[in-house]
Each structure stands twice: as C-alpha cells, then as structure tokens.
Design a protein that fits this description.
It contains nine helices and eight strands. It is an alpha/beta fold and 223 residues long. The structure holds zinc ion.
Length: 223
C-alpha cells in the first residue's frame, strides 16, 4: 500500500473478506505523504485482521506520533519473522518484547533517543539487522546471533556517531558470527587509531563481505 487510498481499499477488502485474510503473509505500507488519523486507524484495523503475516513493512515519510502508532499494543503476530519499520524505538521495544522474539530479520529507522530503548530487547533468533550506528550495541548481544549487519545513516546525527564506539575497545558483541557488514561512514570523521579497516578486521574477524559506503551526510559533517 503506497497511498491513503490503497489503505482504504485494502481495509474495505479485509472487512468483507475475513476468511481471505488468513492467507495473507506479507503486509507492506509505505506512505510518502503524511497520512491522517483515519489512515492510521485503517492500518491498525487491517493489522488486527492479518494475524498470520510473516513479513511486515511499515515505512512513513514522517515518524507517526506515539499516540497514533498503527500497531495496537495487544496485537500479536505469532508467525512474524521479518520486520521493517521506522516507528519510534521506544514503541518498537514494547512491540518486540516479549511478544515477537522470533524475529530473524529486522530493519529500523532513525533513533531519536540518546540511549537506544531497544537495549533491553532479547531477540535470540535475529540474523540480519539494518539499523543506525547508535542502535547496534543495543541489538547485538550474545543472545542475538546476527550474521549480517547493515549500519545506515538516516540523519546527520547518525553520520556523526563516533565509529570508535563501534569498532575499538567495545567490539560488536556478535562479531564472532558476523559474515556480512555494510557500513555507511564519513571518511573524514572516523577517528580510529590504526585505520578503519584494521579496526573492522579485529572486531569482526570472519567477515566474508564488507561494503563501505560514503555517507550521504558526509558534506554536512564536514561543514
Ligand atoms: Zn534505537
């Protein structure tokens, strides 16, 4: 669903075809324009009827206010393994723990909190993670055997996150199993003694794939 009209149309479908909703595996909502409250209510109603989904995408061009999050607090998707959302991380934490600990693939948007609220989440099956640099340590632990990690910059604040906090003394705790690393970075602001590649090789010694991408916010960081 890519528009409020798509949401309305699909809401109409699930209201009249309840039996068909049992077979829906994937729900994707990507709204470029700010939706209104009615739109969020419709999304929430759709998600109440599609409990068997394995893959859920909720991406908005703005962060919806906490009071109108389109996921109801009591909703549980027992088969959900893939989640791609840019809702506030505090609300996401309530959604993940303890109801959705079976997640294997998680992609999240920017984190406005000084300390990521997802640190208390336990995701023992998490294998693939896409997140901003400030949330990596919160989501990679001995309990989360992440094999593929993509560290993205959604904001200039992400680009200014000090890389030594990721790769120097405090290693990525799941590093022993990390085989794929994709890192957005600002080459002028690495601040790593010994160089970036050296630090990554020490932090994640069994990497098969390493992709370094200059951050789209590098120019702003340099100013
Ligand atoms: Zn976070």
């Amino acid at each position: 669903m890519k528009s409020s009209k798509d949401v309305d149309d699909f809401h109409c479908f699930v209201k009249h075809q309840r039996d068909a909703t049992k077979n829906i595996n994937i729900v994707e909502v990507v709204l470029d324009r700010a939706g209104d409250l009615a739109c969020f209510k419709a999304i929430r109603a759709i998600l109440r009827c599609t409990k068997n989904i394995t893959c859920l995408t909720l991406r908005f061009s703005f962060e919806p206010e906490l009071c109108i999050l389109p996921i109801g607090k009591t909703v549980v998707f027992k088969n959900l393994t893939t989640l791609n959302v840019n809702i506030p991380h505090a609300a996401l934490g309530h959604f993940l723990n303890p109801k959705h600990t079976q997640i294997t693939d998680l992609a999240i948007g920017s984190c406005n909190a000084p300390t990521c609220p997802l640190a208390s989440c336990r995701l023992p099956h998490l294998q693939r993670l896409i997140c901003p640099p400030g949330c990596v340590q919160a989501l990679t632990s001995a309990d989360s055997p992440v094999m593929q990690l993509q560290i993205i910059h959604d904001t200039a604040q992400d680009a200014s996150f000090p890389l030594p906090r990721l790769f120097d003394s405090r290693r990525i705790r799941t590093s022993s199993s990390l085989t794929v690393l994709h890192l957005d970075f600002d080459h002028t602001a690495t601040g790593l003694r010994g160089g970036l590649l050296q630090c990554i090789s020490e932090a994640a010694p069994v990497l098969d794939v390493l992709r370094l991408t200059e951050s789209t916010f590098s120019d702003k960081v340099c100013q």
